[in-house]
Structures are given as C-alpha cells and as structure tokens.
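Intended use. Records like the one below are meant for learning the mapping from a protein sequence to its folded structure. Do not use them to infer anything beyond what is encoded.
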Amino acid sequence: NGYRRYERRALEEVIQIYPETVIGTPGGLVSDPDMFNFLLTHCTTVWLKADPEDHMQRVLDQGDMRPMAGNQEQAMEDLKRILASRSDFYSKAQLVIDTSAQPLAETFALLKDEILKNMH
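Structure written out for the chain above:
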C-alpha cells in the first residue's frame, strides 16, 4: 500500500509540474483502479500493444532471461494469460498502437502522428 501511495504522489506531482511529458508506466498499473482512472482522466493515454511473442522476444533481447526460468512454454502461457486479463483495461486508452504491426521507426512515426492529431 505504501508503494502505491508513493507512486500516485509521484505521478500527481509530475503531471502538475510537467503538463506535457511522457510517462512510461508498468503494465500492472491497470490493477490499481484509482491510479488507472487518474491517468485516464488527466493524461492522453496510449496502449503500445504487442503480440505476446514480441513481448517475450523484447525482454529476451534486453538480456533478461528471468521469464524463461524453468519452462519456456509455461512462461509464454503466463504472459498470454496476463495480457488477456489486462486487455479490457488497456483498451480504455485513448490511442492504441500495435507495435507488432510494423518496425520501430514506423511505429514511432505512427505514434507521433496520432499524438499530434489528438492534441488539436
């Protein structure tokens, strides 16, 4: 509970001091309804959606082997379950960008264009 309080205070402060900033939140933030609703109310929210296989590969490309510890198949099933359980929440974001649909440069251009459109 203490962590969530500090997290909320930090986000409130950042949003107040820097009204035009990018904040990357952990995917599990949606499990805190108050915090998630706060972001939906005060921020332009973007779901950077990806296929489970891409999620896993990106983690592995960073050198993090923890998700695979013990059983690669089980790790993928766990990831699919987590993503499926959160998708209804993630879909509440104002923008959804499928990062698996195109390479990084094109994804960034699409994200930038969509954000600029939503600012006007």
